[in-house]
């Protein structure tokens, strides 16, 4: 049987609960054997947050007098994390609760409030960790994919020989993988900002594989579209690559190092920026509508 690894915070929680329960046993004359049996079974079982929360709820009817008051005050202190208004609410309720029964009802409500908050915090932390791991793995994967033809020479030869050496398959591969790497880098560098602004549902989305894959696919597409904008000459100048029909001794089309570097940079930026390619497409559409005033290409 594989023993489950217990979180240190959960371990501390169980130590606190066990100590509180032992204190109750020292003062209680076994007035509620059924609840005590349930608590002891849960303490002896697997240590989980759900079991810990259940034990706290079960212990409430066993608390009386000074121990009940001290438990409520300690948990009200923890409720400060929920906000000032929540803390004030429970303090005022404690003042107005005179009997043990009323205080037990108050403590149950307080436990539920704190436990719900703790569950959301644990979910948030899990989503954040998953999002960081996924974004990191995807960036590493796109980085490897970018250099794959040079790690795996048969792929490089295959790309060179597509179209009998006259196509630009290797350049297109470089462009689309640069776009994907830019999209992955954008996710990785912008993740902290997104985490700070996201709700719990937003964090759940950030750690979804479907969301990350859609961003990478968008990067592939952005890189490809931008490459054809460059190749078509619609984008030209000293800051853009120059395409030529020069070939090497084997008849393969070649680009100078500067042009290749510019393809990588621009296609990387097209994947990194979510606005670059849409902006260029919109401007191109506007230019065509100006040149062809009787044709609306947006329809």
The end-to-end distance, rounded to whole angstroms, is 64 Å
Shape: elongated
Number of strands: 0
Percent range of helical residues: over 70%
Instruction: Catalogue the unreliable spans.
Output: none
Number of helices: 12
Q: Report the sheet with the most strands, covering strand number, pairing sense and barrel closure.
A: none
Q: Determine Rg (CA atoms, Å).
A: 32 Å
Domain count: the total is 2
Structural class comes to mainly alpha
Kindly state the mean pLDDT as a whole number?
A: 84
Listing every helix as H and every strand as E from the N terminus to the C terminus, the arrangement reads HHHHHHHHHHHH
- What fraction of the residues are assigned to beta strands by DSSP? under 5%
Overall description:
It is built from twelve helices and no strands. 75% of the residues lie in helices and 0% in strands. The model has no long low-confidence stretch (mean pLDDT 84). It has two domains: 8-121; 128-291, no CATH class. Helix 8 (169-197) crosses helix 10 (209-232). By secondary structure, it is mostly helical. The relative contact order is 0.07.
């Amino acid at each position: 049987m594989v023993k489950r690894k217990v979180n240190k915070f959960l371990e501390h929680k169980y130590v606190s609960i066990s100590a509180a329960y032992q204190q109750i046993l020292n003062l209680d004359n076994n007035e509620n054997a059924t609840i005590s049996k349930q608590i002891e079974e849960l303490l002896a079982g697997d240590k989980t947050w759900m079991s810990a929360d259940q034990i706290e709820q079960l212990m409430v009817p066993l608390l009386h007098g000074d121990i009940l008051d001290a438990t409520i005050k300690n948990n009200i202190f923890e409720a400060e994390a929920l906000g000032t208004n929540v803390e004030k609410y429970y303090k005022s309720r404690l003042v107005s609760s005179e009997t043990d029964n009323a205080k037990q009802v108050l403590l149950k409500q307080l436990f539920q409030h704190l436990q719900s908050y703790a569950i959301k915090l644990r979910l948030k932390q899990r989503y954040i960790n998953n999002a960081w791991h996924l974004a990191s793995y995807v960036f590493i994967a796109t980085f490897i994919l970018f250099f794959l033809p040079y790690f795996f020479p048969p792929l490089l030869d295959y790309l060179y020989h597509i179209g009998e050496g006259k196509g630009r398959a290797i350049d297109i591969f470089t462009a689309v993988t640069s776009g994907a790497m830019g999209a992955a880098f954008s996710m990785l560098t912008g993740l902290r900002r997104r985490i700070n602004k996201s709700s719990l549902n937003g964090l759940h989305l950030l750690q979804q594989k479907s969301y990350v894959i859609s961003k990478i696919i968008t990067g592939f597409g952005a890189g490809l579209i931008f490459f054809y904008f460059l190749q078509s000459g619609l984008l030209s100048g000293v800051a853009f690559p120059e395409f030529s029909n020069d070939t090497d001794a084997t008849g393969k089309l070649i680009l100078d190092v500067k042009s290749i570097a510019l393809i990588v940079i621009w296609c990387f930026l097209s994947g990194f920026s979510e606005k670059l390619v849409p902006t260029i497409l919109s401007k191109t559409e506007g230019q065509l509508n100006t040149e062809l005033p009787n044709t609306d290409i947006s329809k």
